[in-house]
Batch of 2 targets.
Target 1
Amino acid sequence: MSRSDNMERVPPRRGRAVRLRAGEGLRIVNTHGAQVVDTWAFNADDMAEAMSMEHLRAGLGRIYPRRGDGLLTNRRRPILTLEEDTAPGTHDTLIAACDVHRYAGLGCTGYHDNCTDNLHAALRAIGARAFHTPAPLNLWMNIPLDANGATGWAAPESRPGDHVTLRATLDCIVVMSTCPQDMLPVNGADCTPREVHYEVVG
């Protein structure tokens, strides 16, 4: 997909929050093809209700959402619909957002940008606040599972320009974080976080 002039940018290692009215869509473009985007959605009228991966897995009966699926909140109702998805592979629902503790466990001795901090900074930038950090929908994240249920870390299978469109079924706030992971090949074999682009669509 070519990037249109009215698209906004999420810089590498950073987050952005967007308010959507019910019926509006958010198109997120994996501009360079290998970037994971941690994604959250909160009820704009009640931030205690948020998209929930554990409730989504129970509702779908599988761990990977597909085009046409409603993405459920912790109150078991759809907040977004995965309307369009051009990428091969999967979007992860298992892995928690990275945080300073994750990077410390990987051997980082100083502060490391992380999706948890990006979430809360993006919300503050639009005057909103979440009181917890739900597990995100990790767009384009490739977490292979073996026959014994063990997880791995692999580069995304998405291509430059692949995109998803998320359609709001409630008035909501969607937050995107270009995952800063550079110690595992989550964002490609070169472990380099990159920008993505997005736009609100009717």
Target 2
Amino acid sequence: MKASAVIVCAGNSTRMGGVNKILLPLGERKVIGVTMQAFQACESICEIVIVAREADIPAIQEEAQLAGITKLAACTTGGATRQESVINGIKKISKDIELVAVHDGARPLVRPEHVEKVIKDASVFGGATLGVPVKDTIKTVDGGLIADTPPRSSLYITQTPQVFKRGLYFEGIDFALEHGLDFTDDCQLVEAIGGKVAMTLGDYTNIKITTPEDIAIAEVLLKKR
């Protein structure tokens, strides 16, 4: 099955001191350039749609050209929330696409082979997301006191891309809009309508660049490749 990649990078970068993380240098490219190259290398991805702040779109388009990205089909502006931003991107995908792969623009180190793997799982189950088992013991806290310790064996760190069959994902969007729901995670859209989402094992290098130290870590990981 062929998929469209909707890469979301319309955040305000408050934890980066206002500096747009997707336009920071990473290796020989910018963060968004490395992200796009990962999807460019995937045979199952036939087009890339970028969702970004309007002021950043010219720089992203320039980076796409410099990075040799031929699959960039459209750039569009984000909304007030992540969910709104994703919906804006979904509106730009081709009508004959069977699968939608939603990815954080600030996860540049995703491996193409893992993208292919999560796409394959989504084609079977209807939805799938990359993720990795948690390494630490997790506590739930209420009022500053530990309330529970969930079994670590059942806990995963959810990553992106999160991939869904087009019809299932659109049904989830319709449900959320009808009921005034706003989710921060695309899997929640499908979970809300009772859909199944597979957890596809990725790796721990698929980090999300959120704070300044994450760039330094990403540089080290990129050099190791």
